[in-house]
Batch of 4 targets.
Target 1
Amino acid sequence: MATTLLRRGAATALAALAIALVMLAGQALAADALPDLDQEVPAQLDVRVGGTAAQPSYRLGFGSGVRNVGAGPLLIEGRRVAGSGGRMVARQLVEQDGGGAPRALDGVGSLRYVRSVDHQHWHLLGFDRYELRAVGGGRVVRDRKSGFCLGDRYRVTTRAVAGAPAAPVHTGRCGLRMPGLTRVTEGISVGYGDFYAAHLEYQDLPIDGLADGRYLLVHRVNAGRELRESDYGNDAASVLLELAHGRDGVPVVKVLASCPDSARCAAPGAGGPAAAAVPLVRAARRGPASLLCSLSAVAGGWRP
């Protein structure tokens, strides 16, 4: 009797151990292949003058790029019920190392159908944020960005990224001119990035009324960390600027330093690179031809 009970107990324990091992193996096979969103340094800066001759206004323009240097793609799926308005609920689809269906993560944000001269498609809101901060002080200007239409718009060429597909995968237009969609998918593949040109859909900040001094232009992806990624330490990048006004009141902006992976760019020491003047340009009339955001690739990769 006792021997029988011992045998049964041992069999039960072995069965439980086998189940646990299978579950652990399954977890190992189903490990998340997470993206790693790397914020590029603000680039292609200029100061655009608009308004009238009697009352000009000035905006600091900049290009912004985010690249994926992680183990898996960033995949975003938006869904909504037909007739429920111009927003979709977003969820992140995380691919698994062992293959199989991706794991869905809810509550990562929302997508909105944007209508403007430059845009008529679905944007993931809050993907990338921009602000101007006074050195030693707080934020003085914040963006009005309407979101990103995510895609593989340029290839990462400045570092090796394992697992990058030979050709871009996400080349769609995020439901261009299709406000009635109830589902849309967009993303950034491993080894690729997305880029928005200066002055396109609020890719600029007003600098009217700012005092002379030093400022930080900070770009930050995934600011609220709603998106799951493997590393959040490279989500911000910045440039240190010096602003001065001539006797005519025209702002002169110089770039003193550029700092990847940091929201607190410091001035270079002695022997560092010389300050670079930011060009002053006249505002041009925008039209459909300026739809540069995510509908065409950036030739040659990221261009600082």
Target 2
Amino acid sequence: MQTDAESDPRLQRDIDADIGFIHGGSVRKDIPAGDVRVVDLLATYPFVDDVTIKEMSGDQVRRALEQSLTFERGLLQFSGLKLTYDLQRPEWQRIVSLSHKGEPVMADDQFTIAAPGFLTEGGDLYDSFPESAVIGNIGKVSDIAIRYFGEQEVVRVPERGRQLDVTPALD
């Protein structure tokens, strides 16, 4: 849900991100069912971090996701993409398909991404994020989450299937 908030155009201060990212290790608690309090949102991502905006190529996005699929630092969470992967493939070759708005992501495609500064600065060893310059800042992660929930009467659970594991079952 945090990546949906990051890429929500209503919250972006005139910057329209195509993709939102968050590093899996930063999500410390599930958001409870039912009424959500501010303290629940703050406990989910208990860090003071800005969401920064960058331009990234399809190649940079793909490399970040391939790194994520090594599970060295946890699985990246994202919005704006659909990823199919096979864990029986060698590391750095596990992506079966990657698409944005139904179109395959090509190496030279350009995307505007929103992600916490920790990640865009190369935290958790994600080295493709710092290859491009910051072009904007849309505020603190916690403030964005609070605004996202506050501006909607009902916040729906995001659509499942953004990441699809097609690894064949072992017999």
Target 3
Amino acid sequence: MISKNKCNTYSTLVAKLFFFVSIIFGQSILSESFESIDNWKPLTFEKIEKHTQYFIEKGKSHDSFLKAESNGSASGLIWVKSFNVNELPLLKWKWKVSNIYSKGNAKEKSGDDYPIRIYVMFEYDPETAGFWESAMYESAKLFYGDYPPHSSLNYIWANKEYEEKILPNPFTDKAQMILLQKGKSNVGKWITEEVNVLEDYKKAFGENLPKKASLAIMSDSDNTGESATAWIDFIELKK
């Protein structure tokens, strides 16, 4: 589930996400070096005409990077496969940003923009759902043709130096944000991150996570109206 609720309702957004994600569950190992973006599909929002631009940039040593340029815009990329989180709980990547947003605020809807973030989106499992949750998702399935995602972890490059390590997204508590980078200290530097999705989910939601998930990338600035450039060198899933 993407936390960026640019549509009128939460269910509209997660249904859009579900439409874009290719459901190929099981053990899918990702080792993305961004020679191309063939393994990713675009995510856009109905009410946002200006989209963030994503493309491959070649380095001087023939390395390649995913480059995202956001200028009062919002859109993302979704990985076309999925994975079993219990089998592949470790997520590693390397990223860099040109700047943070002066108006960015992770606790306010008006400031819910980040130069870069990576999402882990979890599949809804009807076999483990309670009565009311089941009724809600069954209604969504009747309307959209399939189940929307269950929840998400958002690994963000936060604009401010918050004391908290985890914050609920201001639009929905079904999306919990993990604040890996905070403020200006590492702007302009390549930073390698490695997280344990299993552990982070339990900390953020206080419960065991759904087994199946996919990934997404987003750089957005439509709420703040600011601009930034971000790069991702690689993304890996590991046991």
Target 4
Amino acid sequence: MTDERFAEAIEEIVAENPKYAADAYYFVSGALRHAFEARGEKGDSGPRHVSGGELLEAARDFALDEFGPMAVAVMNDWGIEGALDIGKIVFGMVEKGVLSASEKDSLDDFRRGFDFAGELAAPFIPTRRRFKSATTIDDERRATTSESRRDENLPS
């Protein structure tokens, strides 16, 4: 499919179902390329296939590579809130002939996917606190003050 025909098909899909931004469809297409490249397949070597699970993993990795800590915000802005949304985009593209699917492919492959937003956020969640919270600082200050007062009241 030519780039021009691909763009036209995406415009048609978005016009019929504006839930997802056009960029969401381009993202899924990029995630598919990412999946093929991860398997060592480059260029147009004829019909190729990835499972729903493989595509979700590729989409996660591609989103993290492209958008880093902003991945969840970008995906949400495009209407992608979870793994099932990736599947709906794929099958929307299948309906328009942009992609093909095997008889075994199903939207259920994406329903059983992982917590997409959680997977995108996980690498950026600190594993330990680096700074003390204001509450902790206040508690320490109170404890130090109490100890000082207690020490002052002790007979010498």
